[in-house]
Design goal:
Layout: H1 3-16, E1 24-27, H2 31-45, E2 51-54, H3 57-66, E3 79-84, E4 88-89, E5 95-96, H4 103-111, E6 113-121, E7 134-138, H5 143-155, E8 163-165, E9 181-185, H6 193-201, E10 206-209, E11 211-212, E12 218-223, E13 226-231
Parallel strand pairs: 1-2, 1-3, 3-6, 6-12
Antiparallel strand pairs: 4-5, 5-11, 7-9, 7-10, 8-9, 12-13
The structure holds ribulose-5-phosphate.
Length: about 240
């Protein structure tokens, strides 16, 4: 196992300690979140009773393969806890997510959860969000208009940068689980993430963006010197 994998596993193991019998769980997407699913599966095999709502087809496939019982948000009355990774987090526990392309389902699931626990390593901690290109999920109709509106919204906040459609391994625009495209915005330093989140959400062709504001209740950071846990004071 690489050092990076070991840290991801450690963060996932720390999150697993917050899981109790009977919980309804949101299951995140990405390499760190997949460690959580693997460790959760071991506990399920040992008798833990939980149900999970996956945030992507990839996570659903992994959970099914490992025997983690799944459900949908239509069949439960909200979730107790979501455990997911992130591409960046700042001092206020605001996040950039969507590096794996699952931001839309991830945000729906996180927003329907009493708590969202983010599992990360030190490399994801930033002073300013934005070094990781911000994923923006857009409908496939009228993207010229949507991109113009994104540029205008960004300019209103003194932000500029390239907007690039995410591509798949065949050189086609990457299609999300919901049938949309993703634009990666290189804003570099987002000094007003809440304002940018609101401005992007107001654009008709934007389905969702990867700024997760006031959603994470806890961030667990695995580092070489141990595991750190930061809780949002108000939650
Ligand atoms: O937001 C995500 C997927 O849409 C992931 O949680 C994020 O990209 C982090 O992934 P990883 O744990 O592989 O670094």
């Amino acid at each position: 196992m690489t050092t990076a994998d070991a840290l991801k596993r450690e963060a996932a193991a720390a999150a697993l300690e917050m899981v109790a019998n009977g919980m309804r769980l949101g299951l995140g997407t990405g390499s760190t979140a997949s460690w959580f699913v693997r460790l959760l599966a071991e506990r399920v095999a040992a008798g833990l009773e939980v149900v999970g709502v996956p945030t992507s087809e990839a996570t659903a496939a992994l959970a099914r393969e490992l025997g983690v019982p799944l459900t949908t948000l239509d069949d439960v009355d909200g979730l107790d806890l979501t455990v997911d990774g992130a591409d960046e987090f700042d001092g206020e526990l605001n996040l950039v997510k969507g590096g794996g392309g699952a931001l839309l389902r991830e945000k729906i699931v996180a927003a329907d959860s009493a708590r969202m626990v983010v599992i990360t390593d030190e490399s994801k901690r930033v002073e300013w969000l934005g070094a990781f290109p911000l994923p923006i999920e857009v409908v496939t109709f009228g993207t010229g208009a949507t991109l113009r509106a994104i540029r205008a919204a960004a300019a209103g906040l003194d932000l500029s940068g390239s907007l690039a459609f995410r591509m798949d391994s065949n050189g086609n625009r990457r299609v999300t689980d919901q049938g949309n495209w993703i634009v990666d915005a290189s804003f570099r330093q987002i000094s007003a993430p809440k304002a940018l989140a609101s401005a992007l959400s107001a654009i008709p062709g934007v389905v969702e963006h990867g700024l997760f504001i006031d959603l994470a209740s806890t961030v667990i950071i695995a580092g070489r010197t141990g595991v750190e846990r930061i809780d949002r004071p108000s939650l």
